[in-house]
TrEMBL record:
This is Uncharacterized protein conserved in bacteria. It holds the Pfam family Acetyltransf_1. InterPro entries: Acetyltransferase_Butenolide, Acyl_CoA_acyltransferase, GNAT_dom. Gene3D superfamilies: 3.40.630.30. One of its GO terms (molecular function) is acyltransferase activity, transferring groups other than amino-acyl groups. It comes from the Bacteria.
Amino acid sequence: MDNQHLSFTKDQFTVTTDPAFFQLEAIHDYLSQSSWAPGIDAETVRISVQNSLCFALLDGTRQIGFARLVTDYATFGYLCDVYVLNDYQKSGLGRWLIECCQAHPLMSTPATDNAGHRQRPLGYTRNWGISR
């Protein structure tokens, strides 16, 4: 995949895949206190961001949210590390962040569905089975 970065704007908010706008310290601060990555070290965050397709949610120049797509850039994408800072929650920005992720060519059609209650309103459904 080429290195063309996507950006989306809504009022004063921006979602971008351009690493020049990623604020690693802010990402690390949030993730290290999260329920899914407590205590994660800054170097691990840096490497994971460097090796993934990431989306920064910005209020002006301040990073207020994040989403990371672990991908092979061909057939697979796993969305993780999604967050929006508490002060910005309940404003629709989390939904918009996910919609921006879905607008990326790698996310246009979910290949798997372990969709929980948070993903179902965004169009994800349980759709799996075993076949031979």
